[in-house]
Amino acid sequence: MPNFWKFLLLLLMSAVIIAVWVMEPPQNQLGEVSRLFYFHIPAAWVTVLAYFVAMRQSVLYLRRKELLYDVKASSAAELGTLFCILATITGSIFAKMTWGSFWNWDPRQTSILILLLIYGAYLALRSAVREPERKAALSSVYCIFAFPAAVFLVFVTPRVYQSLHPADSIIDASGRIQMPAPILVTFLASLVCFTLIFVWMHRLQTAIGRDLHREGKL
Amino acid sequence: MERKPSSLVYKGWCIFSKDLKSELRNRYAINALLMFAVTTLVAVNFAVGQFGLGEKLLAALFWIVVFFSALSGLAQTFIKEEETKTASTLKLVASPNSIYLGKLTFNIALLLTLEVVIVPLFFLLSNVGGANLLLFFAVLILASLGLAAATTLIAAIVSKAAVKGALFAALSFPILLPLLVTAIRGTELSFRGEVFMSGFSELKILFSYLVVMIAVSLMLFDFVWSE
Amino acid sequence: MSTNLVAVIAVLIIWLGIFLYLVRLDGKVKKLNRK
Predict the structure, then answer these.
(1) How would you write the pLDDT of chain A (218 residues) with one tens digit per residue?
(2) Where are the alpha helices (DSSP H) in chain B?
(3) Please, is A4 exposed, middle or buried when counting C-beta atoms within 10 Å of its C-beta (0-12, 13-18, 19+)?
C-alpha cells in the first residue's frame, strides 16, 4: 500500500513527541528547554537538505531546460524557508533561555540566518521575474551561485566569532559526543520523521506547482 | 566556434573600453558611487566628532561605505545595456565569457576609482595612526576584486528582473557577507598596526573567495546572459 | 509532571492537525492528477 509509510509516520512522530516529554530532558543542566533540541536540530537539518535539493534541481534545470525541475527547485526552496524559520525561532528561544538573549552572533545562529537570507533573496528574485523560463534560469543560477558563498560563511564565521562566543561548544560537546541510547534513538527518530515530512510536503508542493503550471502559472 | 584565448581577452578588453568611454562621457555610475561614499563618510565622521571610533568600528565603517556604494553603482553596467537596448547587439558580437570579463574589468575599474578617492579621505577624517599600510592595501585590493567578481554576476541577473535596485542589494548581501566579514577583520588588523603575517589567513580567504567567485561566475554567466 | 502532560497533548494535537492537513492536500492532489 503506497500510503502505508504515511501511517507509520503518524505513529512514529507521535511516539517521538511523547518520548520527548516523558523522558528526562536531554541536558539536565540546561533543563526543560533542552527538549527543544529534538525539534530544532532536525528542522535545521531539513533546511540544509532542502537547499541541496533545490540546488540539484537547479543544476538539472540548467542542463535540461525542463520546467519541472524548476518547480521542484522552487518547491524545495519554499519548504526550506519554512523549516529555516522554524529552526531560527526554536534556536532563538533556546538561546534566550540558556544564554539570556535571543541573538548572539554565535556561528551556528549566524549560519542559519544566512541561509534564511539566501532563501529570502531567492524567493524575492522569483517574484521579480514574470516569464517562466527566465524566472527558472535566473533563480537556478542564483541558487547555485549562493552555495559557495554560504560554504565560505559557514567555515569563516567560526574563526571570526570564536573570540566572542564559545557558547556553541556546550551543545556540541555534550550533545553529540556522547548521547545515551534513549536520547539518541529519539533524536534519530525525530530526524527521520522530519525528513519524511519534508519529502511528503515536497511531493505535494511539486504536484501543485506542476498543475498550476499546466493551467498557466500566474 | 573557435575561441582562442587572445580573442577572449581582446573582446573583453573591447567591451571594457566601450563601457569606459561611455562612462567617461556621462559619469553616471561613478557619480552614484562617489556621492554615496563621500556623503556617508563625512556624515559619520561629523556625527562622531572628536571622540573617534575604535579600530574595529573604523574597519567596519570603511567597508560599509564601500559595500553600499558598490550596491548603488555596480549594477549600472548591465542595467544600462538593457535600458538602452544594446544588450541584443552585444549578444551577437561577443561570447558570454568575454562579456563577463569585460564587465568585470569595468566594475573593478569603477571600484578602484572610488577607492582612490575614498581611502585618502578616510585616512584624513579618521584617526588611524600607525596603520600597517601594506596589509591594508593587500586586503583592499583582494577584497575589492572579490566584491566586483561576486556582484558582476548578480548585476547581470538583476538587469533582467524588475525592481532592480532593491533586488540587487537583497541578492548580493548574503553572498557578500563572508567577504565583508573577512575584509573587515583584515582591515581592523591593519589599523591596529599588526604585522603583515597576522592578516595572512584573512588574505588567504579573500583570495580563495575571489578565485571561486570568478570561476563560478564564468560557469553560470552564460545561463543568465543567453535567453 | 502535569506541565509535561499538557505539553505532550498540545504538541500531539498540533502534529495531528498538520498530519490531517497533509492528508487532505494529498487527496486533493490525487484528484487533480486523475483529471
Answers:
(1) 457 888 888 888 888 888 888 777 766 666 777 788 889 989 999 999 999 999 999 999 999 999 999 999 999 999 999 999 999 999 888 888 877 888 877 777 888 888 899 999 999 999 999 888 899 999 999 999 999 988 888 777 666 655 444 455 444 544 455 667 778 888 899 999 999 999 999 999 999 988 887 777 54
(2) 5-26, 28-48, 55-73, 76-83, 87-93, 96-125, 133-159, 164-191, 200-225
(3) exposed
Beta carbons of B227 and A128 less than 8 Å apart? no
Angstrom distances, CA of residue A148 to CA of A63, B43, B185, B208: 19, 35, 20, 11
CA-wise closest residue to A80 among A198, A193, A209? A198
**B208 is written with which cell numbers?**
580563495
Among A118, A142, A156, select the one facing B157 at the smallest CB separation.
A142
CB-CB under 8 Å, B178 with A152 = yes
Can you give the pTM of this predicted structure? 0.86
Contact by Cβ (8 Å): B21, B106:
no
Residue A167 and residue A169: Cα distance in Å, rounded? 5
Set of chain A residues whose Cβ sits within 8 Å of the Cβ of C5:
21
Range of the domain at A150: 35-214
**Burial, A102: exposed, middle or buried (Cβ in 10 Å; 0-12, 13-18, 19+)?**
middle
Q: Which three cell numbers stand for residue A46?
A: 531539513
Q: What would the grid cell of residue B110 be?
A: 569603477
Based on the structure, what is the number of domains in chain A? 1
A104 Cβ under 8 Å from any chain B Cβ: no
Task: Give, for A171, the enclosing helix (H) or strand (E).
Answer: helix A168-171
Residue entry with cell 559619469: B27
A157 contacts in B (CB within 8 Å)?
Answer: 178, 181
Task: Retrieve residue A161's grid coordinates.
Answer: 566569532
Distance CA(B87)–CA(B89), nearest Å, equals 5
pLDDT cut 90: percent of chain B above it: 27
The ranges assigned to domains in chain C are 1-35
Q: Identify whether A182 is part of a domain.
A: yes
Query: Is A4 domain-assigned?
Result: no
Q: Using the 8-state DSSP alphabet, how is residue C32 labeled?
A: H
pLDDT digits (tens, 9 = 90+) for C5-31: 888 888 899 999 999 999 998 888 888
Residue matched to cell numbers 548574503: B174
Q: Which residues contact B101 (CB under 8 A, 6 or more apart)?
A: B8, B9, B12, B15, B16
